[in-house]
Design goal:
The chain is built from 13 helices and 9 strands. The chain is an alpha/beta fold. Bound molecules: iron/sulfur cluster. Iron/sulfur cluster binds near residues 3, 140, 144 and 183. Iron/sulfur cluster binds near residues 137, 183 and 213.
Amino acid sequence: MITETPLVIESLTDINIVPAQSSVQPQAEQSWNQVLAGATKGVKSLLDQLDLSVSDLNDRQQACLDFPLLVPQPFIDKMEKGNASDPLLLQVLPQSSELEPAEGFINDPLAEKHSNLQKGLIHKYHGRVLVLLSTGCAVNCRYCFRRHFPYQENRIGKNDWQAILDYVAKDNSIEELILSGGDPLMLNDQQLGKFIKQAEAIPHLQRLRIHTRLPVVIPQRITPKFVEILQSTRFDCAIVLHINHSYELDEKLILALSNLRKAGITLLNQAVLLRGINDCLSDQTELSKALFKAGVLPYYLHLLDKVKGAHHFEVSEKDAQLLHQQLLLNLSGYLVPKLVREESGKGSKTPVPMRP
Ligand code: SF4
């Protein structure tokens, strides 16, 4: 799943965000876009809410100039107050180490600009194309491999949809449309429904895959209308969630996922292996079990893409292999995600081989 100064919400009207009401509306009654509009954007504000303080606040604020902090309240509510090592907090809190150069960590680790054939479209793999339907996300994950992606150049509106669909229509080897971003669920239901309807007119398209982290940080995003859109499309649908830790699966998210499951949507998860967050056997085991209980199959466990500013999250390949082997010994096969890395220019994800 799923970004960049590009992840900054550039225009609230673009994604039909209703400005947050300053009145005392209880969160449970807020719509998803109201929750999004009220997301925390300051390091100090986030730390204050969690009763934490740091000595290097200036450096962390400096890191936000490169890639802003953005965290919606439902995700903050899942963090433990007073715990500076909370695995959810560490995914979104800027670190001073982001400012340090690290060998091999670059702006575009997957060289996506070579596959970015036209505005809003990435065609890397046979049979499927990725549409960058939105340039925004609801949360800015510090390890995001697209944190420096040129979203400004890929910002698309309704007027650009036709050019994308024309590209897809001309290549009948393309059977699957992957909606990505940013986060495609930043579009409202009406916009999403319209895009999907237009795509349905292309006869060789069979499948629709949506990569999103938005429901994880704002479960209200799974609206009845969204479920209905997926239920009524002629496409076979899959949603690939991005959940890195079992603590992210709370009651509200589980309920939202069950509504998707009841509608017959296949749910998969991809996680990123992150140092200090989910790089031990117990965390990965708990994540797989919690996902399956929520109706989600663990699909991929990614090695970190070497994006500039994220080197402190790196887990070595050797440690990743050992952890993966332990998972295979401890869990049923269907609960063990494939350990993969993404390499630029390759025709698919690259499986990380077992150690002899
Ligand atoms: S939600 Fe996905 S695309 Fe957006 S910042 Fe997080 S990892 Fe990147």
